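Hi P.,

Sorry for the delay on this. The queue was packed all week, but I finally got your sequence through. Input first:
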Amino acid sequence: MIRRLIILLLIVGCVFAQQYEDVVILKNGSEIHGIIIEEKPNEYIKIKSGKNIFVYEFDEIELLKKELVENESKNSSNKTRSVAVGFGTNRSLTLLGLSRDFRLGNHFSFFLTAGIGTALSGMGIAYQNNYNENGVNFSTTFGIYTDGDNPLGSLNLSLNYQWKIGKQSFISAGIMGGSYEYNNLTYYCYDGYCEDIIHSQEYVFPTISYDYRF
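Then the structure:
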């Protein structure tokens, strides 16, 4: 079951991992890039561009469209790679983890991760109410690791609060829970064929970690 969820999540992430922005093209030739935050059909739209909010009547607008964001700016909100160490990181039950986010909007991201723990490699969906700033961070991670020769799966849910302590550094503290598969060398045998019995273990832990993003 865990492995099927991993495959499904990978497909979803590949489809939605690209980031888009709204573009308003006015009849006077001006273009405004940002996020449409309010729209009243046939009357007006509000678009947030940077820290500014603009309101335009529909009779001022030539075209509304979405564009793929190709060039990331240098501000902290677009630092999507991270190295984390701690008693469980904000992505999985690991002591050391690397991750790469693919933004899905202002708050959500699909990510790939690898580390030392129950997510030797993994993927998941994360929510930050204030991306790369102080705020709540929630993630769901499906991981794969090995126990001897067998590939095993894990599921991790993490809820924490992150504090920004520098331009690229964060401290996160919260709680995590989930389950992981393990093999305790017990076998099921039938007609001369023996198969490993895979068990699962649930867990709930407090977590604290340091995260460097770049």
